[in-house]
Structure formats: structure tokens, C-alpha cells
Design brief:
The strands form three sheets. The protein has a three-stranded antiparallel beta sheet. It has a two-stranded antiparallel sheet with strand order 4-5. The chain folds into two domains: 56 residues, N-terminal domain of TfIIb (Single Sheet), CATH 2.20.25; 44 residues. By secondary structure, the chain is of the alpha+beta class.
Length: 117
């Protein structure tokens, strides 16, 4: 999700007060499956408020990761090619994770990994 260049992100604020107790909250980052989820945390109440943009991107990834896609192998010259479904490519583009080169390797027998860097 791209925000407007003029938009103000409350997660860039120096301090945030807890809505429940009024005390100062602390910033944190939680890593989940390669995603950085920023949050504010109140030590007193135990409330954790995630950045809505970060959470939306993570939820979109979780939905895509539940799907199984059947793709065809195609002969291109002396190699085989696999096409990626549009919704996966769109998601990668939104995440700015599509590059021109990728790594492919065997994770184990009958399982290939494709990694964008």
C-alpha cells in the first residue's frame, strides 16, 4: 500500500499515549514471515496497536499463501519456463520485491524455492 507523499503517519510520532490509561506507549517491531510489523505497546495495559498498513500487507500475504496454483512448464529454447499468476506478481510489485533476477534452488527433493532479492 502506497501512502500519499503528504500523508502523515502517526507511527512516525515521537510519543503516543495509551487510549485506555493515558500513559506513554513504546514503539516496537515484530517480524512475521519476512514482514516487519510496527506497533505501539502499552506496558501498563498490555495493549498492542499495529500499524494498519503493515497489518494489511501481512494479511494479504497470508491470504495468498493459502492458495495453491497450478502452473505449466513451457519450453523456451533449451530451458523450461514457469509463469507466475498475476495476483502474485501484483502483490510482489506492491511490496517492491520484484527484481529482474531471482535465485532458484532445491530446498529438498521435489521442492524448488524461488527467491526475489
Amino acid at each position: 500500500m502506497q501512502a500519499s507523499k503528504n500523508a502523515i503517519d502517526v507511527f512516525d510520532a515521537a510519543i503516543m499515549l495509551c487510549k485506555k490509561c493515558g500513559r506513554k506507549m513504546q514503539k516496537g517491531i515484530e517480524l512475521k514471515q519476512g514482514f516487519k510489523l510496527r506497533y505501539w505497546y502499552c506496558k501498563h495495559c498490555g495493549i498492542k496497536v499495529y500499524h494498519p498498513g503493515d497489518l494489511a500487507e501481512y494479511k494479504q500475504f497470508k491470504q495468498l499463501s493459502k492458495k495453491v496454483y497450478k502452473v505449466k512448464l513451457r519450453i523456451v529454447g533449451n530451458s523450461y519456463a514457469v509463469t507466475l499468476p498475476k495476483e502474485i506478481v501484483r502483490f510482489l510489485q506492491e511490496q517492491e520485491r520484484v527484481v529482474e533476477l531471482a535465485k532458484i534452488y532445491f530446498e529438498k527433493a521435489k521442492k524448488l524455492a524461488l527467491c526475489f532479492e
